[in-house]
Amino acid sequence: MTLESDVSDLWQRYDDGDVDAETATADDYDTLDAFLEGLEAGELRAAEKCGSAEGTSADSQSSAGNGEWTANEWVKRGILLNFGLRATEARTYGGVDYHDVLPLRETGDLGERGTRNTPDGTTIRRGAYLGSDCIMMSPSFVNVGAYVGDGTLVDSCDTVGSCAQIGANVKLGANTLIGGVLEPVEDAPVVVEDGVSLGAGCRVTSGFVVGENTVVGENTLLSPRIPVYDLVEEEVIYGHLPPERRAFTRMVESSIGDHDLFAGGAYKPAVVAMDIEADTRDATKREEALRE
Question: Which listed CATH number (3.40.50.970, 1.10.10.10, 2.160.10.10, 2.60.40.1120) goes with 3-48+60-89+102-279?
Answer without folding.
Answer: 2.160.10.10
